[in-house]
Design brief:
Radius of gyration: 17 Å
Order of helices and strands: EHEHEHEHHHEHEHH
Largest sheet: 6 strands, parallel
Helix content: 25-40%
């Protein structure tokens, strides 16, 4: 076990490369557990747990990006003695973007960055929901098709998770970056062909965020294609292994 607030394990010295995973709004680190079990043993998979969920359920969720990044940095840096890749889906993509900039400022250069199910941070949300009534958040969950209907209809469950969910929406919807930041790492951009949150044209805008290589890959599926389409994690694993084998 680890005393790390965000990563519930210690670094494995046998890792050849490490993958740090960040969840979508309302998500937790356990959504990546299957990756940790199925990926090559050469890849250390380290999902990060945000406050307000699972073993951190007693903590208040964080709704400010700068606050979150300042907390994550000292917890993550002990794991950066090996090559590493950052992965974020939806809200997690914005966290990864903000975190990557800070890591690079501290001279930690990612081998690659994977942005999934998200448009670039210079695109403001079209219909912000963070300050809307609870019913709007519930309708948005239905629209994204990632939460079972029996949970959405469970008032006790929803009253339990809505404060955390609202904090996540606040975190992601209030964070934008209009600067033309350019990463010196290759980017992999993933999207779902039926994802209502993204368009191919919007995903292509990520190409301006690197001076190396940006590869865009679409998969069958909606906003949660990374968990619904088995080809997606296999592709991610192959992408990561390419940094070991070349």
């Amino acid at each position: 076990m680890s005393n790390n607030k965000y990563i519930n394990t210690i670094p494995n010295p046998s890792d050849i490369i490490r993958l740090f995973c960040f969840p979508y709004a309302g998500g937790s680190s356990s959504v990546y557990n299957s990756w940790a079990k199925s990926f090559s043993s050469r890849i250390g998979v380290y999902p990060l747990q945000l406050p307000g969920r699972e073993w951190r359920i007693a903590e208040s969720p964080i709704d400010n990006m700068n606050t979150l990044i300042s907390e994550i940095l000292p917890e993550l840096t002990p794991f950066l003695d090996k090559p590493f890749i950052l992965f974020g889906h939806s809200m997690g993509a914005k966290i990864v973007y903000a975190l990557s900039k800070e890591l690079i400022a501290l001279h930690f250069l990612p081998s690659a960055i994977i942005f999934s199910g998200a448009l670039p941070p210079n695109v403001p949300p079209q219909n912000p929901l963070y300050d809307k009534p609870d019913s709007y958040l519930i309708e948005d969950l239905k629209r994204l098709s990632g939460t079972p209907s029996e949970l959405l209809d469970n008032k006790e469950f929803m009253s339990f998770i809505l404060p955390m969910l609202r904090a996540d929406y606040t975190l992601t919807e209030k964070y934008t970056d209009s600067t033309s930041y350019c990463f010196h790492s290759p980017l992999l951009i993933l999207g779902g062909q039926s994802d209502p949150e993204t368009t191919l044209k919007g995903l292509q805008e990520w190409k301006t965020y690197t001076n190396i290589h940006c590869h865009i890959k679409l998969f069958e599926g909606n906003h949660f294609f990374i968990f619904e389409n088995p080809d997606c994690p296999k592709f991610i694993e192959s992408f990561i292994l390419s940094f070991i084998e070349h």
